[in-house]
Amino acid sequence: MSLNQQLHKESMKYLTTAPLRENNAKFISAISDIAYELLTTDEAVLIEQLYFKLKSIALRNQILYGLIRCKELELKDFFQKAYKKERYLDMKLLAIHGLAYYASEEEIDKVMDHFLKILIKRPETTPYNYQEYEFLRSAFGLPRLIKKYGYPCFEKALQQVEKQYHDMPEAFQGHYTFDEDGKAVQLRSPRETKQMIERFFALQSGH
């Protein structure tokens, strides 16, 4: 048994009986050590149930990333529910990544129509929404879905993302992106990002 398999086995055993303690180091480690390519159907059910109980966006994010790779399992229902559960557009798009593997283009069209409506309203509540936009327009975001499926609804959503992104002041653009594996790539140092944003707000307030 490889180290990966051993860690997976131990994690699943622990998560089967462990109390839900999202700030506990062992609990977090167990989530991180899940080898999604090894998940059995029963284990996947446990992980799905765990996902819907978790309050931590970071842990739910890990699970979504993992389950997207589980092509051998029937997860359409899970991804539909995950889309409805998530509030942030980047998390919703992760659910769409998973759903698109199982759903028809017509079904995805309906989901993306809903997604687009939320996206268009975003500037009203979050005018400097660069965190969501950077993921949506990254190599792992809508461009990946366009490349894989070629659906016009993904193209339409990306065009809207780009419009809203470029409508923002430059202080909120170009700080980071995500590569094709979904890993964050810093384009500026956190310090430089902080300085640019602070300078913007200082100018806005006249200081």
Word description of this protein:
The protein has helices at 3-17, 25-32, 41-53, 57-68, 76-85, 89-102, 105-125, 130-136, 142-149, 152-167, 190-204; strands at residues 176-178, 184-186. The chain has 207 residues and is mainly α. Helix 3 packs antiparallel against helix 4, helix 7 packs parallel to helix 10 (152-167) and helix 8 packs antiparallel against helix 10 (152-167). It starts with a helix and ends with a helix. The model has no long low-confidence stretch (mean pLDDT 95).
- The percentage helix is 55-70%
Derived from helix and strand composition plus strand pairing, the structural class reads mainly alpha
Euclidean distance between termini CA atoms: 62 Å
Q: List the total number of helices.
A: 11
Mean pLDDT over the full residue set: 95
- Strand order in the sheet with the most strands: 1-2
Rg estimate, integer Å = 19 Å
Low-confidence stretches: none
Tell how many strands the DSSP assignment holds.
Answer: 2
